[in-house]
């Protein structure tokens, strides 16, 4: 049983909107925050499109879609998070931005045993926890994109996360959201990105050096290893800015060349070629 009923999601980008959607579909009251009205609208539309897609594929009835939408509300004011039982932070993968969110959440979230979680891919949970006066209630809950489809959530306690916070978070993820938990130490990249990011960067280096074309690299892994998508298309799905940010955090933590972002990735991010979300990355999505 979970005592978590009111969830707050900070950030309505790819991950935040997916997290808000799965929470609303699980019957929870969900409040979504973004920094301005445009970003909030974009998030709301992304959630509505994803719910419509689930209706079209027969996974969700129209009534359940409407009920899920009815359980969601949207605000640009984090002050409205006072009554939340759990808040999941899913803003951009930028340390200072996340630290600022945690400092604010600590001030505004009123319930004494509320859990403050981060969906960070790579920033140490300990740093985020120390931006609050309640580090025992801060934990990492790392979802995977697309959140409504992928079953995994990494659970990352920091050195100071309380046993109660860990148990309640795990009960929530498994019992309420119906996802599977793997636990990881609080090390940049956790389990999945520690393995995935070097693979994606290797594919980018392979393309950059003229070793093989993007299509051949991706087809190699799809047809040769039965992956659902190749590494370059996956980097486009994750977002090249996020891929770079995660690689940078891991490089900073371990100083290993295998986590160092190759120049092609840096130039593409500078150029605004961020993958699917910007319409172009290694592939063109404008059509
Ligand atoms: N939102 C909701 N549902 C989606 C979706 C989305 N964005 N994209 C696809 N789906 C659903 C579809 O509705 C479909 O459901 P159905 O089977 O009931 O009809 C199902 O997923 C399969 O979709 P499609 O048939 O359109 O396409 P594919 O079979 O090619 O699957 C995919 C698309 C689910 C994205 C699949 O290619 C995949 O799993 N790719 C790998 C994704 C992955 O590795 N993600 C992890 C990224 S790492 C990460 O997130 C961590 C971060 O920290 C970096």
UniProtKB/TrEMBL annotation:
Residues 189-285 form the 3-hydroxyacyl-CoA dehydrogenase C-terminal domain. Belongs to the 3-hydroxyacyl-CoA dehydrogenase family. GO terms for molecular function: 3-hydroxybutyryl-CoA dehydrogenase activity; NAD+ binding. Keywords: Oxidoreductase. This is 3-hydroxybutyryl-CoA dehydrogenase. Pfam families: 3HCDH (PF00725), 3HCDH_N (PF02737). The lineage of its organism: Bacteria, Bacillati, Actinomycetota, Actinomycetes, Pseudonocardiales. The gene is paaH_2. The record marks 142 as: Important for catalytic activity. Residues 7-186 form the 3-hydroxyacyl-CoA dehydrogenase NAD binding domain. SUPFAM superfamilies: 6-phosphogluconate dehydrogenase C-terminal domain-like (SSF48179), NAD(P)-binding Rossmann-fold domains (SSF51735). Pathway: Lipid metabolism; butanoate metabolism. GO terms for biological process: fatty acid beta-oxidation. InterPro entries: 3-OHacyl-CoA_DH, 3-OHacyl-CoA_DH_NAD-bd, 3HC_DH_C, 6-PGluconate_DH-like_C_sf, 6PGD_dom2, NAD(P)-bd_dom_sf. It comes from Gandjariella thermophila.
């Amino acid at each position: 049983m979970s005592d978590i009923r009111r969830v707050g999601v900070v950030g309505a980008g790819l991950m935040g909107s997916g997290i808000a959607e799965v929470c609303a579909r699980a019957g929870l009251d969900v409040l979504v925050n973004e920094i301005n009205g445009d970003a909030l609208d974009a998030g709301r539309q992304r959630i509505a499109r994803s719910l419509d897609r689930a209706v079209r594929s027969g996974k969700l009835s129209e009534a359940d879609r409407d009920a899920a939408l009815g359980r969601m509300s949207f605000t640009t004011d984090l002050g409205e998070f006072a009554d939340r039982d759990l808040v999941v932070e899913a803003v951009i993968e930028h340390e200072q931005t996340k630290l600022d969110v945690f400092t604010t959440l600590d001030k505004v979230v009123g319930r004494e045993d509320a859990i403050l979680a981060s969906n960070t891919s790579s920033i140490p949970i300990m740093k985020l926890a120390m931006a609050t006066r309640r580090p025992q209630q801060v934990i990492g809950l790392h979802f995977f994109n697309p959140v409504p489809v992928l079953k995994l959530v990494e659970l990352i306690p920091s050195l100071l996360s309380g046993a109660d916070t860990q148990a309640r978070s795990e009960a929530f993820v498994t019992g309420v959201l119906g996802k599977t938990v793997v636990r990881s130490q609080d090390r940049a990249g956790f389990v999945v990105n520690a393995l995935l990011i070097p693979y994606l960067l290797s594919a980018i280096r392979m393309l950059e050096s003229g070793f093989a074309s993007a299509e051949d690299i991706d087809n190699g892994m799809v047809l040769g290893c039965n992956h659902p998508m190749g590494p370059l298309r996956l980097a486009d799905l994750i977002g090249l800015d996020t891929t770079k940010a995660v690689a940078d955090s891991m490089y900073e933590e371990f100083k290993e060349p295998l986590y160092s972002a190759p120049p092609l990735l840096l130039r593409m991010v500078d150029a605004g070629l961020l993958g699917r979300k910007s319409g172009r990355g290694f592939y063109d999505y404008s059509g």
